[in-house]
Amino acid sequence: RSKTIQRGTHTLFSRQMGIEIRERATLMQHLHKAFDAGRLFLMYQPQLDLRSGRLTGLEALIRWRIDNGELMPPNEFIPLAEYSGLIVSLGAWVIRTACFAMRRLQQMGIALDTMAVNVSVVQFRQDDFVNHVRQALEDSGLSPHNLELEMTESVTMEGSRIFEQHLHTLRQMGVNIAIDDFGTGFSSLSYLEKLPVNKLKIDRAFVRQIDTPDGPKIAELIQQLGQKLGLQVIAEGIETRHHWDTLLHMGCEQGQGFFIAHPMPEEALAAWIQAHQSSTKDEKKGTV
Ligand code: C2E
Ligand code: MG
Ligand code: MG
Ligand code: MG
């Protein structure tokens, strides 16, 4: 009798797992096809100097329009791309596309400091990662100083020689490195301190916390840590004027978020930037 129960449980368990694996495999196939068919695209979210309102950069964010016209969130398909290895070619494509877009803006006379691109640790660990970056810069004609790679902290990078070598080479080339979602990962501070990075990104969760009884304490800690380590600090997820003011008050001088602008397609950037520039000029005129 106990055997039957055991067999029963086993069947149920493996059936559930089977469905999950099948669903994942199907999704993976769709993702591969979408990538090959050019159905993935990038949106760009403005980043501002919070003191002056000046536009300093853009963050490139990937989008996948699925067959029914809806967008599949990157948080759902990037892990899959990492798992299947597709992230290597996908990520190289993201870097290239973002470099070319930034270059096109420059050619229109729009000069920004940085194009920020999200990079997975899986990409960072590839032997030819730096070559991909170098090639994208060369082909697009973008200066390495205008490119920023955003990586999230991960235990898997700690002690990885190839990862550290890549970081050093990229910094030597002049490419900027930011740690994304800072404070939500698992690497040790002593390790992070040794990494050649330029910038910390305060995670959205800590900006949201400003509205809670906890207030801005974690955001403040990250700001102070960045300052002590000589790093720039940028906040993501600024949704209100109050978030902006609180961050600026604690010394955080860069930010992005829905209060400023949602991510937008490349075609919408020039008009947004123009409108933004004339509105910040008007504000200045108004205060003089
Ligand atoms: P992330 O790099 O931390 O990007 C910030 C996310 O917050 C984006 O979500 C952005 O649309 C969203 N966001 C920006 N401002 C606000 C705000 O004021 N309020 C709220 N609620 N959300 C805001 P998205 O585009 O869905 O991307 C999610 C994550 O997917 C990214 O988080 C990043 O980790 C990953 N990702 C996106 N594009 C790429 C990519 O090209 N490559 C890799 N490896 N990862 C990517
Ligand atoms: Mg990011
Ligand atoms: Mg982030
Ligand atoms: Mg985030």
UniProtKB/TrEMBL annotation:
One example of a Gene Ontology biological process annotation: phosphorelay signal transduction system
Keywords, ordered alphabetically: Phosphoprotein
GO molecular function: cyclic-guanylate-specific phosphodiesterase activity
Ranges of residues in domain EAL: 24-277
Domain of life the protein comes from: Bacteria
Keyword Phosphoprotein listed: yes
Keyword Phosphoprotein: yes
Protein name: EAL domain-containing protein
UniProt organism field: Undibacterium oligocarboniphilum
Interval of the full protein contained in this chain: 462 to 749 of 749
